[in-house]
Amino acid sequence: VIGDSTANNNDHRGWADPFADYFNPAQVNIVNRARGGRSSRTFVTEGLWERVRAELKPGDFVLIQFGHNGGPPDRDRARGSLPGLGDESQEFTLPDGSTELVHTFGWYMRKFIAETRERGAAPIVLSLTVRNIWTAAAVERGSGSFSKWSAEIAAAASVPFADVTNAIADQYEKMGEAQVKELFPED
User: Fold this and answer.
1) What CA–CA distance (Å, rounded) separates 106 from 187?
2) With 80 as the cut, is the pLDDT of residue 108 above it?
3) Do residues 140 and 131 touch, judged by C-beta distance below 8 A?
4) In this structure, what DSSP letter does residue 1 have?
């Protein structure tokens, strides 16, 4: 699993740790390489993806989920990618004075998919994980266009896509905000 804090957070608060409990460990090995605060871009630039890629072998699956940690490419935490699915790139001067060539969200996602396939493994793209954020009786269904872009990237690459955003949000809305809050002892 690669992604952000919604998949891997302190004290097993991401979805990918309890996800492993649904499988027989003698038959399936779930490795959660997601890292809190990371974007598709910083997962590459910090070398996290290279470590995952080096471990991949034929028959593996890589669940890919990014989008919560976008933001400006050159300000604050400087972790966002360029918006969109194209091949555009732009060089930025970062807050620490270094420069970096930043690509689009789509470019990074296509990189994960292509390099997963190159290693004989199977990529699976997921939409954003829903958080406990409500407006009236509706739960937030993700930041910006990332879930839509993830679906489009998966379709273009002919890889499986799991629309976890709508599956979870639909269930949460059936349950109601008060009952869902009980699932989040700490937001």
Assistant:
1) 29
2) yes
3) yes
4) -
